[in-house]
Amino acid sequence: MLPFYGDVDLLKAAVRSVLDQTFTDFRLVVVDDQYPDPEPARWLRSLGDARVHYIRNDVNLGVNGNFRRCVDLVEAPAFTLMGCDDLMAPEHLATAIATLDAHPDAAVVQSGVQVIDADDAVVRPLGDRVKARMTPAAPTVLRGEALVASLFRGNWTYFPALVWRTAVVKPIGFRSGLEIVLDLALLIDIAQAGGALVLTEDVTFSYRRHTESVSSVQAIDGRRFDEERAFFLGEAQRCLEIGWPDAAKAARRHPTSRLNAATLLPRALLGRQWPIVSSLTRHVLR
C-alpha cells in the first residue's frame, strides 16, 4: 500500500524500487489523496504492469484518513504502508515475508534501515543517530511490556519499512485523530493485544529524511509535541491500569520526544517565534 501526496519524481523512484523486488507475488496499490496533478495516474497506467493499481480518493482524507483507507483496502496476508518517497532494496519484501513465516506469533517485522536525503545520499542526522542508539541489538523478538517500554523511551522503528500481518492489524487499525504518533499507537495497541515485533539485521530499506515531511513541518511549529504529549500521558495511565509500571514510567518521561523538542528551541528563539517557544518549552519541562 502506497498512500500518495507529494513529489511525483520521488513517487516514481519508490514505485520502481517495488517493481524491482525479488519477491514478485504482490499487489502495489497507490492511493492518491487528491494530489493536484494528473501525472501520477498517467505514469502508473503507462507501466502496463497488472500488479500496479491506482486509486484516487474522492476527497482529501489527510494522513490519518488515507492510512486508514489503505488498511481497509488490504487483501493479502501481509502488507506494508510504504512512504511515497522511500526506497526498497530488491530483497526487502522477500526478507520480511520469510521472517513472518519463521515467526508465526509475529505481528510486524522491522528491517534494517538506512536514512537518505533528497538526493539519495546516505545521511546520519542527530535524530537518527539517537534512534540507532535506542534500537535493540538485532536480530531479536520483542513483545509485551518490554516492547512498549522500549518504544516509549524512544521510537526506534521506521514506519514505512514495517511489514505487518494483516490478520492482526485489521481488527485493531489506526486510531482516529492522530497524524504524528499513529504508527507508534498502532504498535502499542498490537503489543498490548499480545503481538510480537521481530527486528532483523539486514538493511533492506532506505528512509528519506527531508524538511517537507508532515512530522518535520509540525515539529517546527510545535503541533507535533502537543499531540505527542497528550498521547504519552494517556498511555502512561493506560499502562498503569493493565499492570505495566515500567512502560508507564517510560511513557511519562518520553525522553527522546522531549530531547527532540529541546533541539528545536534555539531556532524558535532566534526567530522570536514566542508561541512556538512556549509550546516547545512546555513539552521539554513537563
CATH H-tier superfamily of the largest domain: Spore Coat Polysaccharide Biosynthesis Protein SpsA, Chain A
Sheet with most strands: 6 strands, mixed
Compressed to H and E, one letter per element, the order equals EHEHEHEEHEHEHEHHEHHHHH
CATH third-level topology of the largest domain: Spore Coat Polysaccharide Biosynthesis Protein SpsA, Chain A
Average pLDDT figure: 92
CATH architecture label name of the largest domain:
Alpha-Beta Complex
Cα end-to-end separation: 37 Å
Total strands: the figure is 9
Please, what is the oligomeric state? single chain
CATH class type of the largest domain? Alpha Beta
- Radius of gyration based on Cα positions: 19 Å
What portion of residues is helical? 40-55%
- Content-based structural category: alpha/beta
Task: Give unreliable regions as ranges.
Answer: 213-219
- Shape by Cα distribution: globular
Whole-number total of structural domains: 2
How much of the sequence is in beta strands? 15-25%
**Tally of separate helices:** 13
List keywords for this structure.
alpha/beta, 9 strands, 2 domains, single chain, Spore Coat Polysaccharide Biosynthesis Protein SpsA, Chain A, three-stranded parallel beta sheet, 49% helix, 286 residues, six-stranded mixed beta sheet, 17% strand
Task: Explain what you see.
This protein is of the alpha/beta class and 286 residues long. It folds into two domains: 207 residues, Spore Coat Polysaccharide Biosynthesis Protein SpsA, Chain A (Alpha-Beta Complex), CATH 3.90.550.10; 72 residues. It has 13 helices and nine strands. Helix 1 links the parallel strand 1 and strand 2. The longest helix has 19 residues.
